[in-house]
């Protein structure tokens, strides 16, 4: 006997296309024109902060930086889909998500300057800290979702990972745990076509990354990652499903327009033509086209917004650059309490004048 015992497929979603035209059947009712203006402003804010960070890095005022330009649509759309009790778990590129969720900008900049006080998650801020080791954040995200399930306050977790990260064991283990335990977890894959110099085509033989959900018995979907409204809709629906015990995998199709980090030179491994082609799919451009067609946006408004955002960013940079560090902070933000062994080390360091490299 032979029979088919399993079959599944992957759906792709797009709500607003490159020209700003909307698919009414998919359009989420709660998204008013005012909300679209808000989405546009957040994307512009993330882009402005990104440009500033790059400039600060080139002046030696922050350390290595991972640009997000091109990915504003998926970061803003997914961040706005989060509910009050929800958490997000980042890798290293979600500065836009931190921004939308209300992280103080001076603290974001301080983190880029290498201070523990900047890297620490502010109290009451529903997120885990930035994770540079690829995909290690996902088992934490799954565990956090398991904890929220016990709390029963309706909270869900949105964990971010890159296309490269989906080749890691941590990724599969997290999906498997989420499916087996039915935890309120959504994993969002930022499929930006590159993992440093490794193209998406060489990362896996799988046709979509979303289908990696199937082996874990959970649902996977794809969405145009440069469509802020589409991402908002798909992630919001996915979080609602996850709350019901159906974790999900969302693959957002986007593009890393800039270098991997400031330590990388993408001209060594990809063509200008490829980058140029993605410019037409810019997540800000289509929303601006839509808003202008409805007379909701113009050059004066654009200028006002840019001036306002630039001032906020410059003020935050000034605060971050005048920060006086407390060297003991390296001991403070590791546990929610101070374990005895760490306290001993702290005392020892104080006695030895550990960080007093200047005249004593
Ligand atoms: C476990 C581990 N292996 C390798 C690295 C070096 N590394 C940093 S980012 C990166 C590529 C990540 O690509 P992707 O997951 O697609 O995310 P993206 O950078 O494109 O946002 C690599 C290999 C690392 N940080 N951690
Ligand atoms: Mg990538």
Task: Output the keywords.
about 350 residues; alpha/beta; Rossmann fold; 6-stranded parallel beta sheet; two-stranded antiparallel sheet; binds thiamine diphosphate; binds magnesium ion
**What's the count of strands?**
8
Largest beta sheet: strand ordering: 1-7-8-4-3-2
Mean pLDDT: 96
Q: Helix proportion of residues, in percent? A: 40-55%
Strand content: 5-15%
Instruction: Write out the CATH superfamily name.
Output: Thiamin diphosphate (ThDP)-binding fold, Pyr/PP domains
Q: Which structural class is indicated by helix and strand composition?
A: alpha/beta
Morphology call: globular
Q: Helical stretch count?
A: 14
Count of separate structural domains:
1
CATH class: Alpha Beta
Fold-level CATH name: Rossmann fold
What sequence of helices (H) and strands (E) makes up the elements?
EHHEHHHHEHEEEHEHEHHHHH
> What value does the Rg take, in angstroms?
21 Å
For the termini, the CA-CA separation is 84 Å
Describe this structure as you would to a colleague:
With 360 residues, the protein is of the alpha/beta class. It has a single domain (11-325), classed as Thiamin diphosphate (ThDP)-binding fold, Pyr/PP domains (Rossmann fold), CATH 3.40.50.970. 44% of the residues lie in helices and 10% in strands. The protein has 14 helices and eight strands. It has helices at residues 33-58, 72-81, 95-100, 105-112, 116-119, 137-151, 169-181, 200-203, 228-243, 272-279, 283-293, 299-321, 329-332, 340-351, and strands at 11-13, 87-89, 157-162, 185-191, 194-195, 198-199, 219-224, 248-253. The longest helix is centred in the N-terminal third of the chain and has 26 residues, at 33-58. The model has no long low-confidence stretch (mean pLDDT 96). The structure holds thiamine diphosphate (TPP) and magnesium ion (MG). Thiamine diphosphate binds next to strand 5.
